[in-house]
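Thread title: Can someone regenerate the structure for this chain?

I was given the following input by a collaborator and told the matching C-alpha cells would be attached. They weren't. Posting the sequence so someone can regenerate them.
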Amino acid sequence: MSQDMEIRNKLNDLAYNLKWSWTPSTAELFSHIDSENWQKTKHNPVLLLKKISDERLRMLLADKSFVDRVNQEHDSLQRYLEANNTWFSENYGARDFSVAYFSAEFGLVECLPIYSGGLGVLAGDHLKSASDLGIPLVGVGLLYKNGYFFQKIDENGWQQEEYPDINYLHTPLTLVTDMSGNRVIGEVDVADAVVKFQIWKARVGRVDLYLLDTNLEENQAPYRDITDKLYGGDSEKRIQQEIVLGIGGIRALRMLGLYPQVYHMNEGHSAFLVLERMREMIQDMGKSFEEALETVRSTNVFTTHTPVAAGHDYFSIDLIERYLQSYINKLGISFEQLLALGRKRPEDENELFCMTVLALKSSSKNNGVSKLHGRVSQEMWRSLWPELPVEDVPIGYVTNGVHAPTWLSSSLRDILSDSEGNIDWQKILEVDDELLWRLHKELKRQLIELVNSRSKIGKLGNLTEDVLTIGFARRFATYKRATLLFSDEEKLAAILNNPQHPVQILFSGKAHPRDNGGKELIQKIVQLSKREPFLGKIAFIEDYDLEIARHLVRGCDVWLNNPVRPMEASGTSGMKASMNGVLNASTLDGWWAEAWESSNKGSDGFGWAIGDGKVYESPEVQNEVESRAIYELLEASIIPLFYDRDEKGIPRKWVKMMKEAISGLGPKFTTDRMLKEYVEGFYMVDRTDDKILV
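Best answer:
Regenerated them for you:
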C-alpha cells in the first residue's frame, strides 16, 4: 500500500470514530485540512474529506508535518482503543458482561442532529464516559432522517421549524452489513403491518451505538416515515417510534449476536423492550409470564428525567390494543394484564397506559437524576408502592454529570491535565490569576465573535470581552421561565445600560414545535432585543446546537438558571459552565440545590442562589419574589464583584470564585463520577460468577 493510501485510510479511521469530538488535537487536524468547510459541514469530518479537492489533498499528503500529525493522531487513537488498563478492567477484570443503554436521542456531535436537548446530550456524554472508563456498553437509539429541526426566527420573532433530509451516508455512521456485504434488516409488527428497519453504527471511542432506521423502500409510505423526526407527530407516531426503539432495539441486538446482562432505559421511551425480552423468555425458554417478568425486572435499570407530566408518555387504550394486541398471545396473558403493566391503578379502566409506569414496574433499579429529583420522583410515583412510606419508595438517585473532555475548554484542559492526560481539578488553585483571566477573556472574545457572525437577531454592539456577560441557553419550556429577568423592564434596562458597569445577555434555545408557550417566550426576547433600550445589549442566537453550547458555557461570566422548583430534574448546562469557571446564579433546583447544600455551605464560594428554595402556592408570587431576587443579586453582589478590579484590571475576588467553582464542582459533576455510580450501584450489584442477583 502506498503511503498516500495509508494516510487516506488513517484519516478515514479518525473520521469514523467520534473520539475526535473530545480530542482537540484531532479536531484541529480536520480544521487544518479546510477550516471553512469544517465550519460549513458542522464539524463533519466524513463530509469534509469528501469535499476536499484533489489539489488540496495532494498538497497535504506532500507535507511531512501533516503526515506526521495524521500518524500521531492515528497512533493515539489505536493506543486508546487497545488499552487494557481502564477503570473497569482494573476494578472488575475481564468478564462476559455488558450493558445495553437505550435512549430516544443521543447528543454526540452537531453533524448528527438526533438530539433535542439535555436528555440527548446526557445520553451522548454517557457513552463517551463509558468509553473512557472501559465499561462494556452498547447504545441503542433511532436515526431520524430529518433530525430534530433547524430553527429559524421570522421577522416577528416567531420560531419556524425546518426539516431538511439528512444524508447519513456523508456522516460518521456506517450501515451494518453481514458477511456478504448485505444490509442487516430487522422487522417489527406495527399494528397490522410488518415494518422493516436497517441498522447504522456510530463508533464512540470504544463504545458502539446502533441506530434503527425505517426509511426503507421495502416499507409502505406511512411506516417509512416512522423514524423521520425526533419527537415529531402525534401519539400514534410516538407509539410507532417507541415500538421500533424498544422491541426493534432488542431484535437488532440479537441479530448482531449481542446478549447484554443489563438493560438501561434512559427515560420511558424504550420501555417496550420489556415486552420483547419477556416474549423471548416465554417462547424460547419456556418461562411463565411471572418468571419472565421477574427475570426481566432483575436485569433492568430505569432512569426517569423529569417531574413534568408532559415529559411522560401516555397512550390511549385503543392505541395499546391496536399496536400490542399480538403480544397478548405471545406473553400468554389477558389484555387486562398487559394494561396493568402500564397503569398506576390497574383496576381503573379509565387510566391511560404510561411508559414510565411500565419501566418502573419492570426494573429493579430506578433513579432520578439529582438528590432533589429522587425525592420528587418518590412522591410522584408512590402510588405504585402504596404499602411503603414515601421515603422507602424504591427510586434512588444518581446525579447527572457532564463529559469533561467534551465540555472543558482546550486552554483549561491543557492547564489541568497531568502527564497522562487525566484532569486534576485542584491544579486550578495554583494557576496565576492573570493567566486564568486572560484565558477567560479570550474565550469570551470567541463567543462574542460567534454571536456577531451567526446571529441574525441582534448584535452585541461595540461591547468588549470586559463587559459582564450573562448566558441563558436551554430548551424553551415554560417552567424554565426564560423571561423572568424581564419582569421589570425599566429596572433591567437601567442595569444593562449602566455606563460604568454595563451588562449584556445572550439567549439561545429551541421550543418544542407544538409548545406555543415556549415559542412566545422566544418571541418576547427577540422583540425586546430589537428595540431600545435593549438593542445591542441582548442577543438571541438561533438554531441552538452543541457548538453554540460549547461557546456559551465557556465564554459567559454568569450562567443564569431560574426554573420553577422542583421542575428542573437536573440541569447539566450549569455543570458545564462551572467547570469552565462560569459562575452559576440559579434557583435551588436540580443539581444546583445539591451543589449548594453539599459544597457551598451557604457562602458565595462559587455562585449564587436565587431565593431560598421556598415554593409558593401562587405562581405570580413565586415569579415576583424570585425576579426581585435576581435584580438584587445583580445590583448588590454580581455586578460590583465583577467590576471590582485591581491596578492590573484583574477582578481578583471574581477569579477566586472561578477557581473555587472549577476545583469544587468540576470533579463532582462529571459523567465519569456518574458512570462509576451506575456501575457500582446499579449495573454490578451483587454480581457473582457473572450471574446477576439483584
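The longest strand covers residues 193-204.
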